[in-house]
Structures are given as C-alpha cells and as structure tokens.
Amino acid sequence: MSPSETATQEAKTLSQPPCNHLQQFGIQRTKGVEYFPGGFCPVSTKIARVSVVVLAILVVSAVTVSCTTRFKPPRNAKESQRTLLTTGYCKCGMCTNWKRNWRLKPVVASGPRKGKRKDVGITATGTRAKPGTIAADTSLYPFGTVMFIPGYGYGRVEDVGSAIKGNHIDLYFNSHEQALKWGKKNRKVKVWARR
Q: Considering the domain boundaries, does residue 132 fall inside one?
C-alpha cells in the first residue's frame, strides 16, 4: 500500500463513526463532528460513565436503605442515649475467627473451640448476618435490642463477640473493606432495650 492510499484509508476511518450508535438511534451523521480515533465512541463512553455513577448510587443507597429500614424501634419502648465505641466486622476469617481445615470446611481458628465446625455468616441467634446486625455484650444489651447509630442506621443486637464487652458494639458490613473504612468510632447511640 502506498503512502497516499494509507492516508486515504485513515481519513475514511476517521470520518466514519467507529460504532453504530448514531444510526441505531436514527441520527444522521453531522458534518464537522469529529469522532475519536482508535475505536472510542463518545456515545458509549458517556453511557459507561453514567452507568458507573448510577451503579455507585444504587449500591450506596441499597446499603443505607437496608440498614435504616430493616429494624424499627419497638412501640412504647423507652429510648435512652449512650456513647458507645463502635467497630465494624464482616463474615471473613479475620473478623470472625475462622479458617478452613484440610477438608476445606470452615472451623474456629483459635480459642477453646479451636477446630470445631463454624457456621460462617450465622449469628448467635441463628439468623444470617446482614447490614443492621449488631454484636454486643448481651449482659448490657440483650438480643433484640434495637439501636440507631448515626452514619450507619438502625440495627438490632443479634450476635456476640469474644472482644465485645461493656459499651462496645460491633456493626456488620458486607465486605471487609467497608468494615475497615468504618474503623473505630465513638458514637452517641439511641437504644431501645427489649423488655
């Protein structure tokens, strides 16, 4: 191919859209509109950007909605406000002390129950852990106690933890990254104790 033929071929490639989005929507090509070389489509690029933003909003709202609407305070229950140390946890082995044995079954990693079978993601009350599940010291906050934690939402005490003693609660998150992002925070928590 001669240099002039190559230049003509490149000019044709640049003058045509690298995709068919415009024709797909019944839009005719406009003179003077430049299309990006190298296969980039301005329509699909914008669609991809909008899709990512919408997906991020949906994920954030799903986590927030699930925490804030799953548990409501009991009617006629007395509300109290306490400052509690809050931490985050998930169902991973680092957060809930489990590992896989040689048969690839989950077992307790350390402590008096070391090597015993572990039901991953199941709370002390037997429910599946979800956002809104709280681990607490049940001598102070019995199972079923509803709490509102600013920045997290409503939750209910359904779990315990060996390191969760006194005015310390552990908030469940879907991923280890979210739990680490929450970190360790002192919060003024509204508490509705179960009678």
A: yes
Phi-psi category of 106—alpha, beta or left, where left has phi over 0 and alpha has psi -120 to 50? Answer: beta
Q: Integer distance in angstroms from the first to the last C-alpha of the chain? A: 87
| Distance (Å, whole) CA 182 – CA 151 | 9
Contact of 123 with 164, CB cutoff 8 Å: no
Range of the domain at 103: 64-192
Alpha-carbon span 131 to 121, nearest angstrom:
12
DSSP code of 142?
Answer: -
57: in domain: no
If DSSP codes are grouped into helix, strand and coil, which group holds residue 36? coil
Give 29-40 pLDDT, tens digit per residue. Answer: 555 555 444 444
- In this prediction the pTM is 0.62
Model pLDDT for residues 167-185, shown as the tens digit of each residue: 999 999 999 999 999 999 9
